[in-house]
Amino acid sequence: MDESHQSDPLRRARLRWRARRGLLENDLIFEHFFARYEEELSDADVAALTQLLELSDNELMDLLLARTEPEGDLATPDVERLLQMLRSV
User: Fold this and answer.
1) Could you tell me if 79 and 50 are in contact, meaning their C-beta atoms sit under 8 angstroms apart?
2) Cα Rg for the chain, rounded, in angstroms?
3) Of 30, 70, 83, 84, which has the fewest Cβ atoms less than 10 A away?
4) Spatial separation of the C-alpha atoms in residues 9 and 26, rounded to whole Å
């Protein structure tokens, strides 16, 4: 597992753009998340966030608000750590 800092600003900018969602609540969480953590995201964090962004807005909101927990392919330590970061903002 690569824990190195994700230093590619273009990759981080693409991720930030991709995190724009149809639900305002999700957008606000991601806005606060990136303001707090963008500069320290590791490659593993970016990979976990990419997995989460594959979800529908409603599925993602349920995870962000801890209404549900990650299951199946999402039930990994990296995704769970990233969710804790998202839930803390």
Assistant:
1) no
2) 12
3) 84
4) 22
Tokens 């639900």 belong to: 23
pLDDT in tens, 11-25: 766 777 677 766 778
Q: What global pTM score does this model have? A: 0.78
CA distance 89 to 86: 6
Contacts of 34 (CB under 8 A, 6+ apart): 16, 19
User: What dihedral do alpha carbons 26, 20, 76, 41 form, nearest 10°?
Assistant: -110
Beta carbons of 70 and 80 less than 8 angstroms apart: yes
